Amino acid sequence: MATKHLFLLPGDGIGPEAMAEVKKLIAVMNDRLGSGFATDEGLVGGCAYDAHGAAISDADMEKAMAADAVLFGAVGGPKWDAVPYEVRPEAGLLRLRKDMELFANLRPAICYPALAASSSLKQEVVEGLDILIVRELTGGVYFGEPKQIIDLGNGQKRGIDTQVYDTFEIERISGVAFELARTRKNHVTSMEKRNVMKSGVLWNEVVTQTHKARYSDVKLDHMLADAGGMQLVRWPMQFDVIVTDNLFGDMLSDIAAMLTGSIGMLPSASLGAPDVKTKKRKALYEPVHGSAPDIAGKGIANPIAMIASFAMCLRYSFGMVDEADRVEGAIAAVLDAGLRTKDIMSDGMTEVGTVEMGDAIIAKF
Amino acid sequence: MATKHLFLLPGDGIGPEAMAEVKKLIAVMNDRLGSGFATDEGLVGGCAYDAHGAAISDADMEKAMAADAVLFGAVGGPKWDAVPYEVRPEAGLLRLRKDMELFANLRPAICYPALAASSSLKQEVVEGLDILIVRELTGGVYFGEPKQIIDLGNGQKRGIDTQVYDTFEIERISGVAFELARTRKNHVTSMEKRNVMKSGVLWNEVVTQTHKARYSDVKLDHMLADAGGMQLVRWPMQFDVIVTDNLFGDMLSDIAAMLTGSIGMLPSASLGAPDVKTKKRKALYEPVHGSAPDIAGKGIANPIAMIASFAMCLRYSFGMVDEADRVEGAIAAVLDAGLRTKDIMSDGMTEVGTVEMGDAIIAKF
Ligand SMILES: CC(C)[C@H](C(=O)O)[C@@H](O)C(=O)O
Ligand SMILES: CC(C)[C@H](C(=O)O)[C@@H](O)C(=O)O
């Protein structure tokens, strides 16, 4: 079996603590199952800026490009609030997404039965929730040019960002959404603001055409993004797969994540296109949560989203479906047994730290 | 007392039904209190397109510009889904906002005690909720140029929208937010995506400067818009006034509206700058809900948001604070008495239609 090359980018804040638990799991899989993972590690975000003056070094970018998969922790913190825009911590993540061409961001919002009660939504509204948000990740207002601040004189400045989408970008992301829907409840909802944005008009048109040409067996709905946000809060169970652009996806996936009761639980996968010859796709896996600088270093961060991101990596990058199921099963089992990190703690449960949570999941694996 | 000129634009779908209840209230106020309202009426949205081939005629635009205040119902419906982009129903509303320079959109999200149970959020999370979203309404990606679809050949098109903000636009909208905060809990949260957007960087900078120069007595927080959306769902009571741009405001105000249990309840005001001489400001008042074509003409639409929009009109355009309080009190009293339209119906309450709800509110006025 060929060695599986993982490149780890723990980043800032709670990133390294959460990643440490994944490293333990990788070691166990290598020892017990001979899974053949080789890991290398780099810097991204504020720590990379401190070391190299850039949010990710060219050397680490090369390693990320060469790896079979990248595991990413989190970036940012108040320490770097005042660094120049071009080298801010987030620039490292954005460069990874862009240079690796990770256009498809998969964000499942799953409500673990054991946690349904901790949502701010009524239990009956979120229990059993299982949505997949497919977010376009390399286009839109995140990368369009011009993107600049112009000095107009007289104390006036002008801030400009550009939302741009081409047909092929919308086609390929909606293809991913339709394919995934076929493995689920066969229902895609596409969201944009076609009543205000020309990119939304094109988005709507291309999704409709792609559906008609190749995926007419899948149920397709269109919703305006503002109405979609509202419907997510009102009755999230109506959705199966949601496909949307980079900026709407950023907002909507965070809202969907919050419905589930804890953003500390949710993983994501960012995938490139399959290589024409090898069929392999570049991939990066990261928790939906951020670097949480306020609790960093205290040993209380929830490592579940990071571990669940590794489970997605097993599934999507290595086809290790059994192992992925086992990791996800171990997470559910530990929650059922009543273990909770501080962010998801509730009456009658047992509060544990990051390391104990990681150990408990590995013990159930 | 000078005549108060109201220009009514009921629009499409449930707009006319909801507006009819406001007309009755206006007649009662003229008769009983001698309030001196003169009303004129025009067409906007799909009905204007059917009549004139435009989403609002120039003649009606002139009347809107000349009125003391505009009352707007709702626009759009499947009938006009295929009309050209330039004359789609929403274009009428966008032209009104732009030509009248209504840069400040005030969207209160108030949870009526009688309705707290009908929210999809837990009652304790939303009971007593009182947030004001101040949305910039004449700038950003809604109006920035270029805004177009380019044909690239080879079956490829490119959709482009441009997000633009100038210093003065951010300054004036944040001024509105700070002023309003002083009449409330004195707390403003500004939301943008400065980690990705240059307009967000400028937004953050200008809000910070405006605060420092003129409103340092008000508590100011900054939040990334995605995190803000999440926090709205997690713990909305942490907010007092939220100030944000046109597109984020569109999404966030809809989500905030949904928290309250019914979007059929919520009014909004769109205000221009006070005239240097007369101090009067152009204004348009509209419910947050849309045209709801599926229930139009059935006599079951909830007229409360439209009536509450008229209450905002009394307050902001005519300084009729007592009368505004009385209208809002009548709405609360009718809800306390157990009357409900279909959209907010729950066990043990009395279901009524649009007309009965309007009559009941007028009876309590
Ligand atoms: C960190 C930031 C640049 C990023 C984004 O806006 O995409 C984050 O919010 C996310 O959703 O992954
Ligand atoms: C109808 C539409 C153009 C409008 C908007 O996007 O602003 C609506 O959603 C609103 O929020 O008033």
Topology:
The structure is a homodimer of 365-residue chains.
Chain A: E1 4-11, H1 15-33, E2 37-41, H2 46-52, H3 58-66, E3 69-74, H4 89-99, E4 104-110, H5 123-126, E5 130-136, E6 144-153, E7 156-166, H6 167-182, E8 187-192, H7 198-214, E9 219-224, H8 225-234, E10 241-244, H9 246-259, E11 267-271, E12 283-287, H10 304-318, H11 321-336, E13 339-340, E14 350-351, H12 354-364
Parallel strand pairs in A: 1-2, 1-3, 3-12, 5-10, 8-9, 8-10, 13-14
Antiparallel strand pairs in A: 4-5, 4-11, 6-7, 11-12
Helix pairs in contact in A: 1-10, 1-12, 6-7, 8-9, 10-11, 11-12
Binding site for Mg(2+) (chains A, B): 226, 250, 254
Function (chains A, B): Catalyzes the oxidation of 3-carboxy-2-hydroxy-4-methylpentanoate (3-isopropylmalate) to 3-carboxy-4-methyl-2-oxopentanoate. The product decarboxylates to 4-methyl-2 oxopentanoate.
Pathway (chains A, B): Amino-acid biosynthesis; L-leucine biosynthesis; L-leucine from 3-methyl-2-oxobutanoate: step 3/4
